[in-house]
Amino acid sequence: MNGSARDDAFDGNLSTIWHTKYTGGSDPAPHEIQINMGASYPVSGLRYLPRQGGGSGAANGRIGQYEVYVSTDGTNWGTAVATGAFANDASQKDVRFTAKTGQYLRLRAVSEVAGNPWTSAAEIYALN
């Protein structure tokens, strides 16, 4: 598979996922996904839900180290509003930071929890 659609990370369906390319070679980290919220809002957090379900590939692409950015124009991102590392499990992860107004939210996956060259997400949401 050459990856899954980015829109799958915003569709409210936990059984669909966004996944970076993993067949025929992989693009090395970091990977990123951007959310255009359609208008400017004060954003004070991000919710990340790793892919769900069992099976041998369920943990593939879980984000390890991350950076979060907010932008007014989707071009100028400035410095990260939050950085850290997620636990290696399928639970929902909330990242909170001082509110910043913007139209665009970017989650940058610096690494995958097992060191693999993939990133995946069941759902990603902006929090206010």
C-alpha Rg, in Å? 14 Å
Kindly state the mean pLDDT as a whole number? 91
Order of helices and strands: EEEEEEE
- Major beta sheet, strand line-up: 4-3-5-2-7
Biggest pleated sheet: 5 strands, antiparallel
Structural class: mainly beta
Which of globular, elongated, flat, extended, rod-shaped describes the shape? globular
Q: How many DSSP helices?
A: 0
Unreliable runs, pLDDT <50, ≥5 residues? none
The share of residues in extended strands comes to 35-45%
Q: Report the strand count.
A: 7
**How far apart lie the N and C ends?**
35 Å
**Helical residue percent band:** under 10%
So what's the oligomer here?
A: single chain
What is the fold's blueprint, element by element?
Elements: E1 18-19, E2 31-49, E3 65-71, E4 82-85, E5 93-109, E6 120-121, E7 123-127
Antiparallel strand pairs: 1-6, 2-5, 2-7, 3-4, 3-5
